[in-house]
Amino acid sequence: MIRVLIADDHAVFRAGLRLLLSAQPDIAVVGEAGDGWQTLKQAEALQPDVILLDLTMPGMPGLQTLALLRQQVPQARVLILTMHEDEAYLRQALAEGAAGYIIKRATDEELVAAIRAVARGEIYIHPAMTRALLEDLIPAPKIPETPEPWENLSEREQQVLRLVAVGHTNQEIADRLGLSVKTVETYRARGMEKLGLRTRAQLVRYMIQKGLLKE
Predict the structure, then answer these.
(1) How far apart are CA 114 and CA 116, in angstroms?
(2) Distance (Å, rounded) from C-alpha 97 to C-alpha 71?
């Protein structure tokens, strides 16, 4: 029996996963967690075989949670289950010791197959992400060593780009910061120009390389 811990901050999504997995004859959901710290606590207490880990939860960045899980429960296999389809997230997750990476738009059958694969000791990467990894369509941005471009951004530009990097839309950022959408677009464009970046994928990679998403 594969003992699974579900770590995701959306209770309805967790309930759906529990229903799906509980219907499998070889899988048992032994616990749930809604944030990074709770995930660590539950993992240590329950000692699951597989941990389904969302990368975007409150309390602690997902990649930091992953790194701590690998230290505290090294026998558990961590399968990333996320909305992020950026190659940079995939590479970083694998570097931190993830046993697999599957996106939330995957089918039920793909998710169950992924859990079984990592439980067998295999590495599982969703086909959509495998293509991105192999094709390597987006070249790494050339980041000058000095001076550090990020420090040249205003506080607002930094705030906006951090929120862009974790997947928020311009409207969501505007609502969160109390700004107009047009103002957010201006900060976003100006910040990207200062960093010499053109796409969100390049921004995500830049911020991961600089450790800015772990702060």
Answers:
(1) 5
(2) 10
How many other C-beta atoms are found inside a 10 Å radius of the C-beta of residue 22? 11
Bridge partners of 6, per DSSP, are 32, 52
Query: Rounded to 5 degrees, what are φ and ψ at 53?
Result: -120, 120
Report domain extents, the chain: 2-135, 149-209
The class that CATH gives domain 149-209 is: mainly alpha
Taking the complete model, does pTM exceed 0.70, yes or no?
A: no
Read off the pLDDT of residues 12-31 as tens digits, 9 standing for 90 and up.
999 999 999 999 999 999 99
Task: Strands of 8-137 (E only): list them.
Answer: 27-33, 50-53, 77-82, 100-103, 124-125
Report the half-sphere exposure of 9 (CA within 13 A, side-chain side): 14
CATH of domain 2-135: 3.40.50.2300
Contact yes or no for 138/87 (Cβ under 8 A):
yes
Supply the DSSP symbol for 181: H
What is the helix, strand, coil percentage profile of the chain, to 5? 50, 15, 35
What pLDDT score does 145 carry? 55
Q: What is the pLDDT of residue 129?
A: 83
Q: Compute the radius of gyration of the chain from its Cα atoms.
A: 18
